[in-house]
Specification:
207 residues; alpha/beta; Glycerol-3-phosphate (1)-acyltransferase; seven-stranded mixed sheet
Length: 207
């Protein structure tokens, strides 16, 4: 139901022009860890454009955010209580449970939104989870969501025409994930996303 409302909202906000490439790279029949860069609240709505079943892993504050919170609650997404000593263990445990049911999970490894467009440092969680679950990682790069709303703290005033471009990269296989240490894996995925984001921005600027 939450997914339906996210798709409906994408359709209703006609000033958002979403373009996505690589949807076919996300498998239907097995869970993976999806990792994406984080620029705006709108990321959560825009990334439902992948139209594959998955559960968000999101900080508890987002469940109180207008509309976003409804979408996250209706889809029973994994809630992270930041600041709790046990939060990391709880996140892994809950995400692991969802993946054992066959659902992929989507995580922002930066933890918080970037205010500059340049990605923040990655946290370990998504990569520890992939290694523990012996599954692949699929990086997803996107640009444009940071321009979808007027600037200002927690603003929900929609801007004019906004191009949002999403690119799904090739899967890093479970075998590759197991071969790499967490720090090496983080660095590798960061580099892939950084390069793809730059390409998307160059393509967007040349139009």
């Amino acid at each position: 139901m939450g997914t339906f409302w996210a798709w409906a909202y994408q359709s209703l906000v006609i000033s958002w022009r979403l373009q996505l490439t690589g949807r076919e790279k996300i498998p239907w029949n097995r869970p993976v860890v999806l990792v994406a860069n984080h620029r705006s609240y709108v990321d959560i709505l825009a990334l439902y454009k992948v139209r594959r079943p998955f559960k968000w892993v999101s900080k508890a504050e987002n469940f109180k955010t207008p509309f976003i919170g409804m979408v996250l609650s209706l889809t029973n997404c994994v809630r992270i209580q930041r600041g709790s000593i046990r939060a990391g263990h709880q996140f892994i445990s809950q995400a692991e449970m969802e993946m054992k049911k066959g659902s992929s999970v989507m995580i922002f490894p930066e933890g918080s939104r970037s205010k500059t467009g340049k990605m923040r440092s990655f946290q370990d969680g998504a990569f520890v989870l992939a290694k523990k679950m012996n599954c692949g990682i699929i990086p997803i790069a996107h640009i444009g969501t940071e321009k979808a709303l007027h600037s200002g703290k927690d603003s929900w005033v929609i801007q004019g025409k906004t191009n949002i471009n999403i690119s799904i990269l090739d899967e890093i296989s479970a075998e590759q994930v197991l071969e790499m240490e967490v720090d090496e894996l983080k660095s590798h995925v960061y580099g892939l996303l950084e390069e793809e984001i730059e390409q998307l921005e160059n393509q967007n600027n040349s139009r």
